[in-house]
Amino acid sequence: MKRSVTSLLAGLGIPTLTIGTDFTGALVLATPIELEFGADITTTQWVLNIYALTFAMGMVAGGKLADSYGRRRLLLIGLVIFVTASLGCALAPSVGWLIAARAAQGVGSAIAWPSILALAATWLSEEKRGFAIGLVLGIVTFGNVIGPALGGIASGLGDWRAFFVINLILGTLSLLLVPRLVARDTQDWPEERIDFIGIALLASAVLALLYALDVGADWGWTDPRILALFIVALALFSAFPLWEKRPASPLIPLNLLHGRQFQLALAANGLVVPAVFLLFLYIPQYLQKVYGWHIFHASIGSLPLMLCLSIFSVLSGRLYGTIGPQKLLLFGYTLVTLGCILITQFSPAWGYWGLVPAMILIGTGSGLSVGPAGTIAVGAAGQARAGLAGALSFMVHLTMGAIGVGAGTAVFTAANARHLAAGLERLSLKVSPADQGSLIGAAPGSEKVRAILDSFPAEARGKVETLVRDGFNMGIQDAYWLALALAALGIVVAFRLEEEQHTPKGG
């Protein structure tokens, strides 16, 4: 590669790594956040979901702004927002403040990430585009790999907030490196209008859906408020394509979205994500809450998943031109499907090493799937729309992840609640609904949980603790039936791709 290309990739590497570490590193902090703020598992999931939601919803606007006003400029603006929000996370006095700061981090990432993808996709020649995007995805996934370790180290040293200080340092370093290593934008950019109404419609639809999934177990799924939230979400989702016909510059250009291959590429980028996001969220908690691991060891326990994601994201870029995207996607989705099947059958008696094959299958399959799907989407849109196409692809990626976690957590909570209620009844223990809710997915060491356990006869406490651990396992098993159905649908989508339209000639 030419020196200018090497400099570009080096300049993009640190901000890409920053975004990668931030996304997964925060997930291992769920238990210490629960302990400090007295929050439950349905609240702490928003530390992931609100970031994914604002990242996803802001990404198309970020892509359009990058295509209009310059990719280097927007990258720097996104990094400034990200650094400021990281400081807010580090200083958060409450879980609500933390969630708000995480939302702002998502906005910063949403502005920066499309510029990174577009710079990588348009800097190299067309035949090397798959390699460039695969390399960037490999760096971000490597960030995903070391993120949990950084979060575990921070928590292990006594303060989960130190993780966001690391974000602050990496983000600041990025702000220093990008102006020196990434050349100024020199071309004239077409002016793009931002469809803020379209963004608001889509974001509100997803938010209403996620909130209904979050509180449905507490309020009851037939509660009029829950039904109203689902109706509102459906109405907003239905209104979105109708609105998109009106503005001169819609959020999603209909001529782009109507392309069959582009639609399939977006689906292929999204259907795999719930299986991965659920592992991101629940594996560290499983190791802590079921097996009693220390938070640092639990964060390291996710390494098989993260390493496979990282390695095969890079390899998918190299294999794109030789094997072709369809075969990569078929193989990748098949592996993910097998991994989901393993988790639906998993028993705590298998131990940690029983989880490793599932992590390897899902990590490898996802790594082989996401890169080719994103490359197809960017290639189908053309160079002028590279930023927008990359943004749309990852908008679907993150939105499906957020919805998958929301729906999976709803299933997890419901299965856990059924198991716990049945077990308490067998033990002839009367527990209030509020206390039962506190025991679902409970963090070990929580003052609230200890108080509930202390209210039981001594001989019953160990049995209740076993109920809580077994319920956690049962909840994950049930949640993965949803991930399994989506992965199986991904195999169908891969079969329908027309490979010859997207495989670069000459390999």
Your description of this structure?
It contains 20 helices and no strands. By secondary structure, the protein is an all-alpha fold. The protein starts with a helix and ends in an 11-residue tail after the last helix.
Distance between the termini: 17 Å
* Helix and strand pattern: HHHHHHHHHHHHHHHHHHHH
What is the helix tally? 20
Q: What is the general shape?
A: globular
Point out poorly predicted stretches.
Answer: 500-507
Q: Quick one: biggest sheet?
A: none
- Average of per-residue pLDDT values: 83
Which secondary structure elements does this structure contain, and how are they paired or packed?
Elements: H1 3-25, H2 30-37, H3 41-69, H4 71-90, H5 95-123, H6 129-156, H7 162-181, H8 196-219, H9 224-243, H10 254-257, H11 260-270, H12 273-289, H13 295-300, H14 303-323, H15 325-344, H16 352-381, H17 386-426, H18 433-439, H19 447-454, H20 458-496
Helix pairs in contact: 1-5, 1-6, 1-7, 2-3, 3-4, 3-5, 3-8, 3-17, 4-5, 4-7, 5-6, 5-17, 6-14, 6-16, 8-9, 8-17, 11-16, 11-17, 11-20, 12-16, 12-17, 12-20, 14-15, 14-16, 15-16, 15-20, 16-17, 17-20
